[in-house]
Amino acid sequence: MTRLPRLVIIAVFSACFAAGQVGIDGRVLDESGTPLPNARVSARVDAKAAPVTAESGPTGGFRLRLPAAATYLVTVEQTGYFVLADQPVRIDAPNTPLTLVLTPKREVFQSVDVGESASPIDPAQTNREQRLNGTEVNNIPYPATQSFKNSLKLIPGVIQDPSAGVHFHGGAEYQTQYTLNGFDITDPITGHFNTTLAVEGIRTVEVQAARETAQYGHGSAGAMTVRIENGTNEYHYTATNFIPGLDTRNGFGIGAWSPRAGFSGPIVKDRVWFSDSITGGYSSGVVTGLPHGQNTNTAWSAGNLFHTQVNLTQSNFLFGDLLTNYASTAHAGLGPLDPIQTTSSQYNDEYLGAIKDSQAWRSGAYLEIGAALLRVYRKSNPQGSNSYLISPSGRGGNYFVNSKEHGERKELFANFFPPAMRWLGRHQVQTGVDYQHLDYTANFNRTTYVVVGLDGLPEYSTSFVGSGNYHIPNSSVGSYINDHWTPVKSLAIDVGVRDDWDQLIGRNALGPRVAAAWSPFKESKTKLMAGWGVLYDATNLATFAPPYDQRPVTTPYSPLGIPGVPYITNFLPGNNLRLPRYDQMSAGIEHDFGHGIYATGDWLRKRGRDGLIYTPVAGTGPLVEQQFYPGAENGGTYALSSVRRDRYDEYAVTVRQNLKDQYEWMASYVHSQAVSNAVLDINVDQTLQLTNNFGPMPWDAPNRFLSSGYLPVYFKKWAISYLADWRTGFPFSVVDPSNRVVGPVNSHRYPSNFDLNIHVERRFDFFGYRFAVRVGANNVTDHSNATAVNNVVGAPNYMHFYGLEGRHVVVRIRLFGRVK
Q1: Distances (CA, A) of 687 to 54, 552, 679
Q2: Among 414, 452, 580, 818, which is least packed by CB within 10 angstroms?
Q3: CA distances from 288 to 146, 247, 324, 356, 472 (A)
Q4: In this structure, what are the phi and psi dihedrals at residue 603, rounded to the nearest 5 degrees?
Q5: Domains of the chain, CATH where assigned
Q6: Short-list 763, 710, 598, 596, CA closest to 134
Q7: pTM (2 decimals)?
């Protein structure tokens, strides 16, 4: 399906022999003519000679100065693309123009030699970048492979919690910036990552995990960039899981079905291309531990992402994206301790329209301007209006929140690279600006929840007053400048500063950053890195909502069940707020052992302050890490304040090997700690009463071992893929019958979690079409992997774990198009 990397040479040779030095003034492009920056280009007379090297700039342009006229072996490497290795080129002129076209690393159906992958070690890259390519996303058997969000757990340092939230390097989900082809797709209300993407359309996933340049803002936990497949001059299509799956756990029927398809090709050859990825989903959502007929959570979803590229000229490129997503869930929240009457019916949709224009000049200058509109809508309806009951044996009644929410983001950004300058080395400056306007409109209508004790009598009940209708707007502006300085070939330094302004905060925040990478030995097989920076989180509109939302009114009960005097909880907007700030220090080492094997070691230290949390107005001074303070359910008035503090430490080791035909394996170990003085957010819907909110974050996993691979077997056209994922169990709190946290928050842990998934795949041709069939087992060891626990002290089933995963068989069939 994928052809070998090819070299397109456009050369104008001088009529007479040039005296003195010769050289190449070239460009590196992808298959659709788009410039590829940061590609490593080298030329040498023969395989034993020392190469002359250069790096392509923002326009894909590079310049090599060679000692004499000769035939040179030219090699180009770029992460995510196949190596263009030792291509012979005759260089006779001082400025020989040369265009090099690289083929991206894609899935390869047939067993052919598609070439070597580029070395992942880039001597000029100072940041810690972690990558997934489309091949890994489609080949590694992670649970629920139809979900792109689930695939993110394949990245070391990324944890997925039981509610499917993703956490990058110790941060909350809203502390990472999520972008699609450069556009922000972070949820405009919560800051979470809720966008559904078809995995067939993914080209690469890039995570800036440490030492981010000043371009990346709005995320102390990092920045995730998703790049999707571009169309080419050939039509391609794939289809996956187009036959529904069967499930016998709840009688014979369709258990889970996740059909997906991808199409791409030319609209006008050599000028206009498109790619379109479609995803759908159906799940019966069988939950173990509940009676038959009341143990299913039916869910539907559908999504489409259309991407197009128009080459207006050889240096002017126009890109467009249109994304639509729809999803509905019949019984959200269904679980062993949450029967069907306590659940909610949920509906979500999302729309993104985006356009970007890029202009590359001969001088090496590059400009891109983008605009986007993102809209989300979600609705949640409980199964009835009865009071919601929280008891030692689980939940009962009907959930108490009925809501409708609309969110919108309007975005406009520009990034500019002036021509590279030379002064004590090479300087590539980058500058840019990003403007966003957000809107949040909500309608909440809550009923009542009641906390029931061991004797079956109410401990207290909470109802709500106020309209619950509100609208919150916000605007933010971020600007930056960064200098990528290469004083010598073995040393790269990034120095930059970012300025962020937020309307809700009402002040600016400056974030200086500096990072360096040094390759002390020849051929850049080893690289040492270190950096320091100040990062700020984007504001979260949901955090500013409580002062405009309904207010809880709590009524305590005596031991005999007699109601006492109710008290009300108020929330205020707060004053003198600051953007949440994180000071980050990091260091790392990378080494290429040859034969496609390389290893990385990383250390990361983050200290957060000025985080936003609601604290008592009558509090005694600033909140410090071990200070006790009451929770919202004790009544009183709470104001939003910048007193949250977080800390995160990480040590990570990763070893990878890239093999031919896109076979590969990876193994990593991460030791980390994520703690905060505000583990649980105090808000209108918080049902727990807190006295000590300092402890490990709910997603804290001090130890994690992760390994995955897609490997050949003895038989031709067969392959085996696996995932081994072991980690420390997540922390949780224990509560008394009154739903008060006993002791420090998150003082207990689930048992360790272990997933071992092994799948075997057979590729074949049938009636002129290419197919691949995969059969395997998830959770081969039948490890318990609990997702729920009864945490009420004194309950008959106290500390009993639920939601056991169980071993199960998975079947997948894929169509790759016609045999060519």
Answers
A1: 60, 10, 14
A2: 818
A3: 22, 13, 33, 48, 41
A4: -125, 135
A5: 7-101 (2.60.130.10), 226-818 (2.40.170.20)
A6: 710
A7: 0.89
